[in-house]
Hints:
mainly beta; disordered N terminus; Pectate Lyase C-like; single chain; ten-stranded parallel sheet; 27 strands
Amino acid sequence: MKQRPADSSEPNRPGDRPGSSGEETVEGDPLASTPADFPGQNPGPDHTGVPPKKKLRVHRGDLVIRTAGKVVDGLEVHGRVQVEAPNVTIRNTRVIVPTRTESAGISNNNADGAGMLVSQVEVLAADAAPGVNGVVGHDFTLEGSEIHHVTDQVHITGSNVTVRNNWFHHNYHFESDPYQGGGASHDDSIQIIGGGNITIANNRFTGAYNAGVQITQSISEVNGVTIRDNLLGGGGCTVNIAEKGRGPVDRIVIRDNRFLDDQRIDRCAIIHPSSTHIAHSGNVWDDTGRPVALSRG
C-alpha cells in the first residue's frame, strides 16, 4: 500500500448508504468562521477543516439525517453520515470513517438529500483500507474542508455541485485493490461520473495517484464543468477527461489554475479526447509561471 497518489478512467464506487438509523438532534451554532476565497494562495492547514478552538462532541456509529433543514454542528462522528432530507447543513465537524466496508464519509447520493451544505469539516478513514471515499453525491456544496487519507476525496454522481476552498491530500493507493478486481486503486481527488452545473474553485490538490480531477461519463453525460483558480497536482495527468462512449464532454472550462509539476507522466497537466473541446486560459505551471499545454489522449 502506498499513501501517495493509476492511470485509468474507470470510476471508483459512488458510495453506499449507512446501515444504521437513529438521527441525532444537534443544535446549530454560528459558523466559527466563514470560508472565503484566499487571494494569492490556496487553502491549506490554516484555512480548512474544523476550527482549532471548536469543541466537538463524540457520536459513535452512523448518523442518518432525515429532517429537512437540519444543522449538524460540532460533532466528531466515528461512523458515516448519510443525508436523506433536503437542505441539511453539516459544519465544524470531523468524520472518521470506519474501514470495515466500502463506504463514504458523507453522502447524499439519493433522491432526497438535495441542497446539502458541508462546511469546515474534516473527513478521513479510521485505518488504511481501500474503498473509503470522502464526500459522495450530487446537489451539494463543499467548502472550507480538509479531506485526506481516503481513496477519492470527492465523488460527484450528478448535477448542481460546488466544491470550493478545500484542501485534498494524502489519498490512499493500493497496488492490489479488491474494488478494482485486484488491480491498482483508481484514487482521485475529485471524480465526476455524471451531471452538470459543477464548479471546482480555489482548492488545493495533492497526493492522488490516478488524477487530481477525473471526469468520466460512467453513469450519465457530463456537461457544464468549470475548474478555476485551483492549485492542482497529482495523478498520471492531473486533469483527465474521458468520454466513456457517450460522446464529447460539453462545456468544460479550465482557467486560471496553477499546476504542480508532480504528475507521473511528465508535465501532463490536462489530457482530453480530441473530440472534447476545452475552454482553456490562464493555466500556468506553479514553478515557472509558463503556460500549460493541453495533451490529447
